[in-house]
Amino acid sequence: MREEGRLQPIPDHLAPGLDVLFVGYNPSIRSSRTGHHYANPSNRFWKMIHGAGLTPRRYASHEGEAMLELGYGFTNIVPRPTRTAEEITKEEYAAGRKELLTKLKLYRPRAACFVGKGVYEQFSGRKTSGWGFQPEASEQVPGVREFVGPSSSGLVRMKLEEMIDVYAELARWRREELGRRS
Q1: Which segments constitute the Uracil-DNA glycosylase-like domain (predicted)?
Q2: Is 12 a domain residue?
């Protein structure tokens, strides 16, 4: 656990050439306190990606760094922890957009998975074309596919099974990509 009472950003898990870089809004209070991505017990991220077939087993938030070995990384568009994404300011999104673009250019993941439509819309400055991969013409960084999935926050009313169905497209794409590289 981190220092009590003091909310801090959590470290990114980044490496060059990842298969998927998961991009969240910002850390929750629980994530800030533990130092781990998607640490709130009501957050369905770990259940969702396992159910979709992205991981061989259900990982826990404290195992986030181990996900690098599977080809997955984590970052947020805004580093400041909040209770809800509504607390994020326009200025924070603008600064986060620039920082995220720099990370994508530097690390060049095969896909950036935006965990929430709002994250993608804040990053791209446009509406999504729905769940899943966005049209290639919308790529901010050439060669980095953009995937939009539902937010895994417990505040989202979407059923877990529906979320899993969306992320299953990302899992199928990844399996195909791995097959092409073999």
Answers
A1: 11-161
A2: no
Each residue of 114-143: pLDDT tens digit? 999 999 999 999 888 799 999 876 678 999
| Residue corresponding to tokens 């998927």 | 20
Distance CA 67, CA 89 (A): 30
Does 11 reside within a domain? no
Pairing of strands 20-24, 145-149: unpaired
How many domains is the chain built from?
A: 1
Residue 58 token pair = 């259900």
Of the chain, the end-to-end C-alpha distance in Å amounts to: 40
CATH number at residue 54: 3.40.470.10
112 has pLDDT over 80: yes
Quote the tokens at residue 20.
């998927």
Angle, in degrees to the nearest 10, between helices 90-107 and 117-124: 80
